[in-house]
Amino acid sequence: MSRDKKTLLRKFHQARWDEEIIFEMSVPGERGILVREAEREVQSRVGDGVSVLPAGLRRSEAPALPEVNQMRVLRHYMHLSQETMGTDVTIDISQGTCTMKYSPKVQEHMAARNPGITEVHPLQPVETMQGVLEYIYNLEGYLKEISGMDGFTFQPAGGAQGIYTGASIIRAYHESRGDTQRNEIITTMFSHPSDSAAPHTAGYNVVTLMPDVNGYPDLEAFNAALSERTAGIFITNPEDTGIYNPRIQEYVDAAHQAGALCYYDQANANGMLGIARAKEAGFDLCHFNLHKTFSIPHGCMGGSVGAVGFTKDLSIFPPTPGVAFDGEKYYLDYDITDSIGKVRSFFGNANSLLKAYSWIKSHGADGLREAAECSVLNNNYMEKKLREVPGVTVWYAEGKRRLEQVRYSWEKLYEDTGVGSEDVQRRMSDYGLQHYWMSHHPWVVPEPFTLEPCESYSKDDIDEYVAVLAQISKEAYENPELVQSAPHNQVVHKVPNPSIDEPERIAVSWRKYQKIRDGN
Amino acid sequence: MSNGKRVYPYIPNSVPEVKAAMLKEVGANDIMDLYEEIPDDLKFTGKLNIPDPLLDEYSLKRHLEGLLGKNKHGNEYINFLGAGCYQHFVPAVCDEINGRGEFLTAYVGESYADHGKWQAFFEYSSLMAELLDMETLSVPMYDGAQAAATSIRMAARINGRSKVVIPRSINPEIRMVINNYIKPDISITEVDFDEETGLIDINDLREKISSDTIAVFIQNPSYLGVLECQAEEIGKIAIENGSEYIVYADPISLGVVTPPSQYGATITCGDFQALGMHMSAGGGQGGFIATSDDMRYVSEFKDLMFGITETVVEGEYGFGEVLFDRTSYGSREGGNEYTGTSSGLWAITAGVYLSLMGPKGMQDTGQTIMQMSQYAAKRMAEIDGVELRLNSPFFKEFVVNFDGTGKSVANINESLLEKKIFGGKDLSQELPGLGESALYCVTETKTQEDVDTLIKALKEVI
């Protein structure tokens, strides 16, 4: 049987293996793998090797790891993978703001299977890793063009670390000018939580602007917040709502006027490639999440890259080393006079950078723009369809075009039926879709959900996705309990208390769980 | 091609007819109508100046293979570099599992459709907890250096103090990350080490520690490979002072080496790249922090924690978020530091690695590493003019001094490179007190023949 061509719905059931925890599979004496033994002659020269361990440093009892044969270990993790709904197996429009685009397999095969990257040590002489340095150097060139910035660092191994790097650079910039009174940054509620948390970690007080009635960060409040204490602003555009703020330059100009630097969080820049750049809006810094816009797979949360761009004026501050080219060979450039030092060991996730490089290489300028256009087109198409689904509303900016994503609301559905966004979120996985992402905390839009149908998804994919949400809306109006008790076709059933805050319930390891279970 | 316009295999709606139909559906005449909110003066009007694409997959593959072919690597050269990134044996099952598309492309889905991911993270924490003899871990961090830096800030939140003691012999990569990360409100006090033994100078520690010391931080094995036999005493000094005791450990040593919690560490941290990850030019790193189940520690972690719990069906395992409000996802700047996407796929892989190894595999691995590294050290020390610089027992890495040869490490390494050998990391600039010394790393991936090849080469070039 194939998918119902009229309703577009699938009779789906996720793999359910009733899989044990790996410790429960242990059979004393079983081995998962054998380890190479030192040669006999080596042993005769040095003995058992461990006798030299100082008293107190020789482990007395072996770690209580499970003992499991190899096929069982493989099967166990294969089962766990089947019980995971990666983007490779679903229409992952769900995780809005995260740009769950297709990561072409050829990239993965190169980065994960070719010893020319997997077996390279980061401290090798530079002449032995010219290939790595070449693609990093060229990737920097591409991103400079895409953003208009004058340089990039790839050391940050995630978007939040990129923002932290930006905050560190801003701190170094003001320090270098002896401007020590600037202890505040300004961000907005619809920017990522890292835009407040990472600068705060770098020592800044945070002022957070709430949206005005149209969903834009309140310009009046912004101007009132700016002062001689403002070190920088950290802002997204479009924000999580998908609404582009057309007055962005006024914010940037006002911040500059006050002596602050402007950081553009472009973690998700997918609708903007070749359309608009950080430079023209006057930003001093920006970052791209290469695991979003530039197709590095998300890997259950990493290895990721937060590539931070900066203007020439800030080029003496980024982490060391950079990658440079002298006309003949590529080299590591440690000559960054006022560098903040390092945020990540070596030069970041060099293998992941190959994937981003490859993705740009396979698209070129026209292809990047096509990706942006189709992501925005898909989003507009989907928004139109979803607005027709009973119970769905869209907050703010009525009549305005949104770019690559939309924050929707089930507020009306909740009022009408008692079915909230978390209920729908659980239920949708019964139809073979990844749970959508709702919103960062605190929720400003009630009963929120955030969708991003990026360029990887076809019209048919979007139609199926909308059909599922329409079906769940129908269920909510007809039989709310069905949705509230979901999921029904999943790996496991509903967890009644998924927020684990009571100390007596906290078990993040098997040994702790056993203690709790056994009443110790 | 359709109407002469390019259709991209990764962009289904680039088919002109489809695109046109969808545009019509949304009431737009032109794609730029959808961008009407962007003021004209902010629009980029030209065409991005990047090289022409390699549109077909074969050409792209050839190009990438050509690039990677310019690199030399540890399969064709004999590699003795370590210093935080290590060439260990990677079981095929590790690559098989982290290559599974479901894990490779999942992200932040809830614990139903992504139940397997949540369980894999729980197992990672559980397996690491056994190895480390601790109870509590979060999802992983970017790398060991970040774990070290966050351990210090956790400790500062626990006792409210403002100075951390770290050894002068700390890995410089880790030190640089710590420097930047603790800058706002924590200062560093450096404790000296003995340049003959490589061990921490206990007298100096007693002098440097104060009522304002957040924590004493050591690496064990040290950056220079030395096993710190005074680790218990250092811990006592820290704890008696009301400080935390942070030990940065190499997890692959813990089949044979005592886990830090058993000699007094209150916070154990490190990098788990050794547990099943390729070097990937530094892309295989992943950081961990482990503590007891004391809530004073649990509540200070900064990253997500996945706890095991029950579903509505009796006996069925479910998973939930532990103390979500402690994270910046829950509380923005009110959370502990900041959290974000880091190295999830590698944590799952480390879980697979430890499941395969089991207790015996970890013991065997530790033993082979110790034997091979001791063999290499002994053989090197037999060469005229070459000596082991530090006289303490070591794990995996050791400092070799070439002063007696009259040659610099740089020169020697250059000659070794011609013989397809990556010599040890040159220490002469960062620790000049050790003379012309190099940090050699010998893991279970090095055979007797590899070591003998090195010895022969060294004799020729010295």
Report strand order across the widest sheet of chain A. Answer: 1-7-6-5-4-2-3
The separation of the N and C termini of chain A measures: 52 Å
What's the CATH architecture of the largest domain in chain B? 3-Layer(aba) Sandwich
Give the full name of the CATH homologous superfamily of the largest domain in chain A. Answer: Type I PLP-dependent aspartate aminotransferase-like (Major domain)
The strands making up the biggest β-sheet of chain B line up spatially as 2-8-7-6-5-3-4
Beta-strand content bin of chain B: 5-15%
**Strand segment count of chain B:** 15
CATH-assigned homologous superfamily of the largest domain in chain B: Type I PLP-dependent aspartate aminotransferase-like (Major domain)
Helix content of chain B: 25-40%
What characterizes the major β-sheet of chain B? 7 strands, mixed
The overall strand count of chain A is: 13
Overview of this protein structure:
The complex is a heterodimer of chains A (520) and B (462). Chain A has 520 residues and is of the alpha/beta class. The radius of gyration of chain A is 26 Å and the shape is globular. Chain A has three domains: 20-39 and 67-83, no CATH class; 92-102 and 372-397 and 404-520, Alpha-Beta Complex (Aspartate Aminotransferase, domain 1); 111-361, Type I PLP-dependent aspartate aminotransferase-like (Major domain) (Aspartate Aminotransferase, domain 2). In chain A, helix 9 (248-257) links the parallel strand 4 and strand 5. In chain A, strands 1-7-6-5-4-2-3 form a seven-stranded mixed β-sheet, sandwiched between helices. Chain A has a three-stranded antiparallel β-sheet with strand order 10-11-12, with no helix packed on it. Chain A has a two-stranded antiparallel ribbon with strand order 8-9. The model of chain A has no long low-confidence stretch (mean pLDDT 97). Chain A contains 16 helices and 13 strands. Chain B is an alpha/beta fold. Chain B has helices spanning 16-25, 57-69, 92-98, 101-104, 115-132, 144-159, 172-181, 202-208, 231-240, 295-298, 328-331, 344-381, 409-418, 448-461; strands at 78-79, 136-137, 163-167, 187-191, 213-220, 244-249, 267-271, 287-291, 306-310, 317-322, 387-388, 397-401, 421-422, 425-426, 437-441. Chain B has three domains: 12-57, no CATH class; 78-88 and 359-461, Aspartate Aminotransferase, domain 1 (Alpha-Beta Complex); 92-354, 3-Layer(aba) Sandwich (Aspartate Aminotransferase, domain 2). Chain B is globular and about 80 Å long. At the A-B interface, helix 1, helix 2, helix 3, helix 4 and helix 5 of A face helix 1, helix 2, helix 3, helix 4 and helix 5 of B. Strand 13 of chain A pairs parallel with strand 10 (317-322) of chain B.
